Amino acid sequence: MNKKLVALFLSICCLMFLAGTSFAAEDEVSQKDIENVVKALKDIKFNLLWYLSYMSGEGADVGGKAGDGEDRNKFSVKRGYFRFTKGLMPWMDAHMTFDVSQVSDDGSSLDGSVAVRIKYAYAKFKLPDAAIFTKPFMEVGIVHMPWLDFEEHINYYRLQDTMFVERNKTFNSADFGVTVVSLLGGEIDKEYQKKVNDKYPGRYGSMAFGVYNGGGYHASEKNENKVLEGRLTIRPLPDIVPGLQFSYFGLTGKGNKDTDPDWTTNLGFASFEHEYVVLTGQYYWGKGNQGGSDENDKDGYSIFTEIKPMNKFSIIGRYDKFDPNTDVDDNDNTRYIIGAAYHLDKLHKNMILLDYDSVNYEDSSKKDDKRIQLTLQVAL
Asked: What does the DSSP assignment read for 134-201?
C-alpha cells in the first residue's frame, strides 16, 4: 500500500513538473512572438484621411455634366486615403496609399459604389546631403509627381475639390515612375515651421523632378513615350520674408494615347504664407493634357487666399480663369469659390468646410454650374 502511495505521489510530481515546464516553454514562445510582433511594428506609421460631403446644386460638380442646369443633391465620400509607411532601413522606407472613391459611370452597374485602388506604392531612398541639396530623397514605383503635392501643402483645402490645373483635367498627382526631391540650402528656422508651415521647409526653396509613364496612377500606358516633369521653388528672402516663394513647373511629353498627341505644361506660381494669411497666384500655359483627349493650346490663371483671423476659423476664396482652346473664341470658364472652415483640433487637420462654388461658361449653350457643399475632413 505504501509503495502504491509513493508511486502515485511521484507520478503526480512528475506530471506537475512536466506541466510547469510546458507552461514555461509556452510563456517563452509567447514572449518571443510578442517581441517579434513589436519588432515588426517598429517604424510603422498609419494615417487616415477622409472627405465626407453633402452637396446640392447643378452641373458637373454634383454628378452631372458641365452646364446641364439640372438640380441634384447627394451625400458623398469624395475621397478616402489609408496610408501605410514602414521604415526598412535608416536609408529606405516602403510606402503604400489606398485611395477610396465613389465610382461615376452611368453605363455601369458599379455606378455610385465605393471603389478602392492603390494611389501610391513606392520605395523611398533617403540620399545624403550634398552641396546645397538638403535631405534629398528618391521615390520609385507609383510616386508623387512634382507639382500637386507641393501646392496642396500651401492650399490645404483639397477637401473642397482639386487644385486649378487638376480641376481643368490637365494632370493629376501620381504616376508610375521615379521622382527626386530635395530642399535647397538647409532648412528655414523652426519658429516659422511651427507657426506657419513645416512642409517643404527649404531655407532657399526646394526642387522636384522625375520621369513617368504619363498616364497617371489610374490608367495603363497607351504609348511608349515617357514624360519629363520638374519643379523649382526659390525662397529669395528667408530671413526677411520667409513665407515668400516663387515656383516654376514644367512638363513635356505625349498625352496617353497611341496617337502620341503633344502634351506640354508651363506653370508660374507665387505664394506668400503667414501665420494669419495665405495668398497664391499662378499662371498656366500649355498644350494638350494627360489623357491625350486633344492637342489644343490652353492657358489660364488662378488666385487663392486663406485668411486665419482666429485659431479655429478660416475663410477661403479662389478665382479661376481657364481657356481650354486659345484658338476658339467664347469658350472660357470662370470659377468662383468662397468658404468658411472650422478647425476641430489642429489647423488643417480635422475640420468642417462650408463652401459655395460657381462656374460661369462663356459658351452660351451651357448654363452656369453652382454648388453648395458641407464637408467633414477626418484625419488621423
From this structure: EEEEEEEEEEE-TTHHHHTTTS--TTT---HHHHTTS--SEEEEEEEEEEESSB--HHHHHHT--SS-
Contact, 97 vs 117, CB < 8 A?
A: no
What is the per-residue pLDDT for 26? 58
pTM metric for this prediction: 0.89
Residue 89 pLDDT exceeds 90: yes
Nearest by Cα to 358 from 112, 67, 27: 67
Q: Which residues contact 149 (CB under 8 A, 6 or more apart)?
A: 173
Of all residues in the chain, the percent with pLDDT exceeding 90 is: 82
**Residue 189, C-alpha cell as written in the block:** 528656422
The cell numbers describing 378, all together, are 477626418
Max CA-CA distance within the chain?
A: 115
d(CA 39, CA 91): 18
Length of the chain in terms of residues written: 380
| pLDDT (0 to 100) of residue 34 | 64
Residue 218 pLDDT:
87
Is the pLDDT assigned to residue 36 strictly greater than 80?
no
Query: Can you tell me the mean pLDDT for 191-217?
Result: 97
CB 361, CB 368: distance < 8 Å: yes
| Dihedral sign (CA 154, 84, 168, 51) | negative
Within a 10 A sphere around the Cβ of 1, how many other Cβ atoms?
Answer: 5
Q: What is the pLDDT of residue 262?
A: 97
